[in-house]
Specification:
The protein contains four helices and 14 strands. The chain has 210 residues and is mostly beta strands. The chain has one domain: hypothetical protein yedk fold, CATH 3.90.1680.20. A hairpin with a 7-residue loop joins strand 8 and strand 9. The longest helix is centred in the C-terminal third of the chain and has 9 residues.
């Protein structure tokens, strides 16, 4: 399960991909992204495409909240047939999550992470879901907060990811047609994008870095 990724693409670089992009997220600082942190997402609204920030971790099903009511959030979504997730599969709740590379733990104490990236510096996005203005208790010290939240879909791993993480990999979109379909197509069409990326479209970065 991907709980760490890196994002280095600038606002200008994203505008080259999406000419009508409205930036509400300010300047983007490159770096690693961990669960519960804020990071950029791209979503559609009536005026076009919007770049904004959201907090990584969608609302958990109530049975997974702690006894004190804390909801740590869900970073990856696999079972889109679940009633908990179905309500947020409409185009207005879909987003693109820009990334440069993502990590999976190699397994075993002290073995670090394996990092994966799309070769050739090709732009790539996770197929994301976002929920605006969600009230929740993430940390007792912060009290109840109202925030925009996001996570991204996972699927069966391809042959490149499976040796490191045999259970899942993020759903990755690499073409303009896929980005458009994810943001606007009915679910009967968009759900076809929940599939592994082709083996030749991803590689392992051996220098794990962390």
């Amino acid at each position: 399960m991907c709980n760490l990724y890196n994002q280095t693409r600038s606002v200008d670089a994203m505008r080259q991909l999406f000419a009508d992009l409205n930036n509400l997220g300010g300047n983007l600082q490159p770096g690693d992204v961990y669960p519960d942190q804020t990071a950029p997402i791209i979503r559609a609204d009536v005026s076009g495409l919007v770049l904004q920030r959201a907090r990584w971790g969608l609302p958990s099903p109530p049975q997974f909240h702690s006894k004190s009511g804390i909801d740590r959030g869900v970073t990856n979504v696999r079972n889109t047939a679940s009633a908990h997730w179905r309500r947020w599969l409409r185009p207005e709740n879909r987003c693109l999550v820009p990334f440069t590379r993502f990590a999976e733990p190699r397994g075993g104490k002290g073995t670090g992470n394996a990092w994966f990236e799309v070769p050739g510096e090709r732009p790539a996005f996770f197929a994301g879901i976002w929920v605006p203005d969600w009230k929740s208790l993430r940390k007792l010290k912060d009290g109840e907060t109202t925030e925009d939240l996001y996570a991204f879909l996972t699927c069966e791993p391809n042959a490149v990811v499976a040796p490191i993480h045999p259970k899942a990999m993020p759903v990755i979109l690499t073409t303009a047609a896929e980005w458009k379909a994810w943001l606007s197509a009915p679910w009967t069409e968009a759900q076809r994008l929940q599939r592994p990326l082709a083996d030749e479209d991803i590689c392992v970065v051996e220098d794990s870095g962390s």
